[in-house]
Amino acid sequence: MTKFNDNNNCFVCGTKNKIGLKLKFRYIKKPDLVKSEIIFQEHFQGWANIVHGGLISTVLDEIMIKTAEIRGLKCVTAEINIKFKKPALTKTKYILNAKIREIKRKIIITEASIQGLDNITIATANAKLFIIN
Questions:
Q1: Any residues with CB less than 8 A from the CB of 73 and at least 6 apart, and which?
Q2: How is the chain split into domains, by residue range?
């Protein structure tokens, strides 16, 4: 099996990644909630001034993985489902939230969202995470 080690070079949260997002996460142990904030710069756009959907998916995936850290677990994403509700604009602050819904043996079921400061939802996600430790 592959070793899963953190060398601090993750595209989303790694502090050593020169081109990464360097997101910081806030952990709320009960009810297993993780929060973050992001402003996507112009070089993350698809259409003019619109954040590429792949980046929205990436940050939602990462924040769901971070929910497992509350329990001291390492996971990889086994399945992910993203529902886009509205385009995200570049140079605009967004709030990310994720929580654990259920843990079944080696699987963690999570959900997440990204919202504007106006509380309008940009996208939601749910995932099954496979516990690797």
A1: 108, 131, 133
A2: 26-131
Query: Is residue 26 classed exposed, middle or buried when 0-12, 13-18 and 19+ CB atoms within 10 A define those classes?
Result: exposed
Indicate if the pLDDT at residue 55 is higher than 60: yes
Cα–Cα distance between 85 and 18 in angstroms, integer? 31
Query: Please, what sign has the CA dihedral across residues 12, 105, 78, 86?
Result: negative
> How far, in Å, CA of 60 to CA of 115, rounded?
11
Q: Does 80 have pLDDT greater than 80?
A: yes
| CATH top-level class of 26-131 | alpha beta
How many angstroms separate the CA atoms of 130 and 78, rounded?
6
Q: What is the rounded distance in angstroms from the CA atom of residue 63 to the CA atom of residue 59?
A: 6
Q: Is residue 92 within 8 Å of residue 116, measured between CB atoms?
A: yes
Q: How confident is the model at residue 8 (pLDDT cuts 50, 70, 90)?
A: confident
What is the C-alpha to C-alpha distance for residues 64 and 53, in angstroms, rounded to an integer? 17
Answer yes or no: are the C-beta atoms of 105 and 39 closer than 8 Å.
no
Q: What does the pLDDT average to over 18-23?
A: 90
